[in-house]
Amino acid sequence: MNKTNFYLFALLGLLSGLTLVSCADDNDNNVEKETYELAEKEAAFGKANEVFTAEEWYPGGELGTTTKRSYSAAAPAVDKIADGMTSFKHGEDFFEHLYTLNTEPRKGLGPAWVRSSCIHCHPGYGHGKRQEEYRANEIGNGYLLVIYHPENNAYISEVTGMPQTQAMEPFTPPIDENQIKIEWKKVEEMPSGLAMEFKDGESYELIYPEVTIPQSAFNTNPKPENYEVRLESTIGIYGTGLLDAITDEDLEEQWRKEAQFVELNPAMWDKENNTFTASAYYSAPYNDLNKHRGDHGPVKRFTYAMTRGSLQDGAGANAIWNITNVTRSDRHWLYSTPAWAKAQSEDQNVINYIKENGASEESLLHPYYADGTNEGIAERVNEILGVTSVAKKETFEKYLFKGAPYNNKEEMSDQDYYDFMVWHRGLAVPAARNLDDADVQRGKQLFAQIGCTRCHRASWTTGNDDYWVDASIKAYCQEKGLDPKNSLPRFVNQTIWPYTDMVQHRLFMKNDIRTGWCRTTPLWGRGLSLRLTGAEDRLHDCRARNEIEAIMWHGYSAESDAYKTVENFMKLEKADRDAVVKFLRAI
């Protein structure tokens, strides 16, 4: 903001009797954030009107909404737990700053990793940005590579499910990112038959990525064969604790309701018995998540593919381990593959470097040094880098994890992980904006009338938030004498407005997401994306550069679950289309 505009803005604030507080974002992404209270700025804030209830100004409910225009603010629920803000700020540090190989407090990076920090993928805590090339160290690159066999949609086994392109010396990364090619292509016509312009002559353009990785880019033995590549970008992480507080019973009822009208993912939904399949419940072999209620874990609800069922073992809790490859007390093994371990053990450059630099007990390479012979080093490299499961964690512990200075100590302590989860679960949803605007009100009505709310369900009511407690948090609470079931922020009986049905649908897009099934993404807070992250890219791979493109991708194929809705959108006058967009930017 230049000086002239700043003084003008401040003067207007003073004239209206408001106090304006402006501060620079501290998330290392140099995006300005306005943190003034909306209640002071907008006279209509929090008041009901003919279209919106008073509660809709608070999409995260009383306990989950912040009146700051920010994705990084703490929810009021954080103040309900002991030392809540202290833990929240400490947990925030693990998200915002770089992990290193051996420097406190964020040590333990590697030996191969996806990113060296969480903020790399979540600029401003939001959705990743569209990229022209894949570079792991580019702030805003929220892309995860999805490499799979198209005949069965299974991930290739030669690299990790979240493929790594970075590694500590002397190891070569599992994938050479310099050989990854992203090419953006333009849709020339819609297979569904929809026109590429609206009836008033306004046109739109759709693009999609084509990603290729040659076999030569894989530093593995064996190298993968018969594979394809897709991109999946991160989404905003705010409000995930609220989604975790939706009950399993309410989720099942939503799936059952929609099963009457559309085909649901057979991997998740048992059509014959009208209930979830066994695989719809999350169960992890490396902790005690097997029983959450009754004889199964919680219902899966996180990630596009719905692979995670509890926030305490959800995308973020998982990512703080496998993105950085930092161990903790319940995960004392590497995120790695035997194919990468074998290739590194056969690389003479790796052997020679360890022989020259790994003899000292203070060296990070010392665990790989063995007896100092070529054969001994190769065997040890293969053994340590190949430790990928609970069954083999004793082998990893025998060699002092990834480096001698750690001396059989976890790289992320139970307290650090607890603070991280207080932060993760405690992130608030930004309050809604401009709900008193006539266009926004018209947009909400049209959003429902044309059918968008069939998938983007407006509201839910959370339950008792009887969240599952994982092993690390349980251990920390036991040490500190805390009640594990009340140690994290809780969102009990909150009416929330995420605009998602928490169900997977198919849009049948060009170069679609792996399997074709994708969870309906929550829309709350997305209208602040450009302000807070510098971009407003949407959909799973950032192919949509604005709301109109995102909507039209829903009608790319006549098979899409949302095709009829897009047909209805195409019939709207420009003023009505603009009203829908304005509504999306307000919630």
Descriptive account of the structure:
This protein has 19 helices and 17 strands. By secondary structure, the protein is of the alpha+beta class. Helix 8 runs antiparallel to helix 11 and helix 13 (414-425) crosses helix 15. Residues 1-37 have low confidence and may be disordered. It is globular. Among the domains are: 105-237 and 324-412, no CATH class; 241-307, no CATH class. Helix content is 28%, strand content 9%. Strands 6-5-10 form a 3-stranded antiparallel beta sheet, with no helix packed on it. A two-stranded antiparallel ribbon has the order 1-2. Strands 3-13 form a two-stranded parallel ribbon. The longest helix is centred in the N-terminal third of the chain and has 13 residues, at 3-15.
Which secondary structure elements does this structure contain, and how are they paired or packed?
Blueprint: H1 3-15, E1 22-24, E2 32-34, H2 38-41, H3 61-64, E3 65-66, H4 84-96, E4 112-113, E5 143-149, E6 154-155, E7 166-167, E8 181-186, E9 207-212, E10 228-233, H5 240-244, H6 248-258, E11 269-270, E12 275-276, H7 315-322, H8 338-345, H9 348-357, H10 366-369, H11 374-385, H12 393-398, H13 414-425, E13 429-430, H14 438-449, E14 460-461, H15 471-480, E15 495-496, E16 504-505, E17 518-519, H16 529-533, H17 547-553, H18 563-570, H19 574-586
Parallel strand pairs: 3-13
Antiparallel strand pairs: 1-2, 4-7, 5-6, 5-10, 8-9, 11-12, 14-15, 16-17
Helix pairs in contact: 4-13, 8-11, 13-15, 14-19
